[in-house]
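Researcher: Batch entry, complex prediction.
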Amino acid sequence: MDRSSSHAEAAPSTGTTLVACVYNGGVVLGADGRVSIGNYITNRASNKIAPLADSIFLCRSGSAPDTQIVSDNVRHYLAQMTAESGEEPTVQMAAKLAQMISYNNKHLMAAMLVVGWDKHEGGSVYGAPIGGTLSKEKWSTDGSGSTYIWGFCDSEFRDNMTREEAEQWAINALALAMARDASSGGSVRIITCNAEGVHHRYVWGHEVPQALDDLPYPSGPPPLGGPAGMVLG
Amino acid sequence: MSGIGTGYDLSSTTYSPDGKVFQTEYAQKSVDNSSTVLGLKCKDGVVLACEKLVLSKLLVEGSNRRIHNIDRHVGVAVAGLAPDGRMIANRAWDEAASYKRVYGEPIPGHVLCERVGSYVHLFNLYWSLRPYGATILLAAYDKNGPALYAVDPSGTSLRYFGTAVGKGRQAAKNEIEKLKLAEMTCREAVVEAVKILHKVHDEDGKKFELEVSWVCEESGKEHQRVPADLLADAERQAKAALEDSDMDD
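Model: Structure tokens for the complex:
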């Protein structure tokens, strides 16, 4: 057996692109769907967005198990606080909890965005990178793919966008990152939170805007039996 | 008038045949016999006011503090045994500080008062501890607005528009009921609070001081002593009102 490639022993990478931004009335968050071990894509449609409360979400990048543990813990403490206070938790509270866990457990490699809507602040975006920093922003991006889109996000973001503009900003940012970052790709998940509630949107791989002159996806699924007329059964 | 326990009142782990815990009732007596403390929740904040009997000419003015800051946005006024009240205030401070450290926001008033209530209640459960002989009035201004709570020696915590505890509580509550608190600002309520305390003060010639605090829009939503000029003006108005009513008699 060829042991020179260590793919079998390597952990899955959440090479990822995450984006989030505040708009006039709420907040939009988005993530790609790729999980890979080396060149092998173990999951092309994974969900990197974890719910922390009804209107608060955690976008996960870095170490997959670390971010799952952080997400479970924050969800637990938020639920406890909701029971004690009788009120819906705020995004600030969720972000603070995520920060506390990162800061007090320096071995964790959790690079997160805590994003959501609450009735006191409206939409909020908090960056919670590795180490335990917490920063409230109008928009943020994280993950390996984010390096390729900081310039795009800087130049294209505007205050007080409409919901449609904000969602398109997020989709375009993700599409650009997915085109250049090998560890990001597949499909796109977008969540919009506002006073009305939470709205999920899934963008199929073939519907993601084409950033480069790639061969376009064929439209629609292949016919039954395969494009080459493969015989089944 | 008061129920004499006779055998059922020696420990807070003993019920009386009619279902009372006499130790808790006796702790309440401590509060009932103390000097008057009142709280008013108005349209833009909360006012706390304490009547303090000056026990000795040798005391520096302003000593024997009865109002404590718990966090920037919360304050408590203590009625009953002052050291007991101080213990409760310190616990409230601890709760507020740890909440802020973990959750990143100032502790909401209703969460704090429940935690303080649980703490005070604890002391009613065990033979080795005596119940606290103090009621605290808690004034908070959090993201849900201003609120006034009272935690009594049994650990009951209730939310109020206005309330009074201590010797003059009956007379004070009667006066409070006449006020239209929802339409009043804290500035106006301070004057009313001072008037009430002067009115219900036992006329036995004992000198007394007032300690008045507020948390409202005007104080930047922070709990502070009311400005000295406002307090002086309120005292003037209170004394004038008393003289007027004296002349009417």
